[in-house]
Amino acid sequence: MAGSIIPIGTTTVSCTATDSVGNSAQGGFTITVRGAADQLGTLQAYVQAEPIDAALKKRLVSAIADVVKALDGGRGNPCAQLGDIVSTVERAGKKLTASQAQRILTDLARIRAVVGC
C-alpha cells in the first residue's frame, strides 16, 4: 500500500515485517478518511460552538452550508466558495482569536485539498 491513495471511508492496512534472519511479525491498523462534506459539517459545528462575533458566525455558518450544497450538486463553485471563506477568516481581525482563525484556516486547507482545489 506504500504510495497508495487511500479512498474516502474506512480502510484496514495489514503489515508484515521480516528481518535479515527471517523473523517476521504482522500487524495492522484502520484508517478512516473523511470526505469534504463530513469535514465541513465538523467545521460548521466548531464555528457554531465557539464564542465568535454573532454576525461573523452567521456568515461563516451560511457560507459553509453553501459549500456543502455546491458539493451535493447544487449551484456554485466549491473551490471559489472555500476561497471566499478563507478570505473572510483572514479579514476577521479581532472578531476571531488567533487560535480560532488558525483552526478554521487549517480545516479549510485540508478540505480544499480533498475537494481538489
Q: Quick recap of the structure?
A:
This protein is an alpha+beta fold. Helix content is 54%, strand content 17%. It starts with 8 loop residues before the first strand and ends with a helix.
What value does the average pLDDT take? Answer: 94
**Rg value:** 19 Å
The H/E string reads EEHHHH
How would you classify the helix and strand content by structural class? alpha+beta
Describe what this molecule looks like in 3D.
The chain has about 120 residues and is α+β, with helices and mostly antiparallel strands. The chain has a domain at about 35-115. Helix content is about 55%, strand content about 15%. The protein is built from four helices and two strands. It has helices spanning about 35-50, 55-70, 80-90, 100-115, and strands at about 10-20, 25-35. Strands 1-2 form a two-stranded antiparallel ribbon. The two termini are about 25 Å apart.
